[in-house]
Design goal:
With 101 residues, this protein is of the alpha/beta class. Helices cover 38% and strands 27% of the residues. It contains three helices and five strands, in the order E-E-H-E-H-E-H-E. It has a five-stranded mixed sheet with strand order 1-2-3-4-5. Strand 1 and strand 2 form a beta hairpin. The radius of gyration is 12 Å and the shape is globular. The relative contact order is 0.18.
Length: 101
């Protein structure tokens, strides 16, 4: 299922649904591009509330999003991460690269 995109003022929310892996690459890229193209958005919040787990390709997708967002002076924040997702982020040292809420 395609991620849900919502824009609330200067915050764009990208709500992911289900397993986050390489199969979601195209949908994730399209949805994140909507937020990158929205001039009013200054912060992109990737919501992991409905994500039970993710793999290394998901980490790569997030790093690419961060890079593309930085070129447009937009921040990326990872939100609502459950324990299995947090554990992967910790192993990958994502807390040093992203704000995780």
């Amino acid at each position: 299922m395609r991620p849900i995109v919502k824009i609330e003022g200067k915050v764009g929310r990208l709500m992911l649904l289900g397993q986050f892996d390489f199969q979601q690459h195209r949908d994730f890229r399209q949805a994140s591009q909507e937020l990158l193209d929205a001039n009013e958005v200054q912060e992109i919040r990737v919501d992991f509330d409905q994500v039970p787990s993710l793999d290394s390709s998901a980490l790569g997708m997030l790093l690419l999003l961060k890079e593309r967002a930085a070129m447009q002076k937009k921040n990326v924040v990872l939100t609502n991460c459950h324990a299995p997702v947090k554990q992967v982020f910790e192993m990958a040292q994502f807390q040093n690269m992203f704000t995780i809420q």
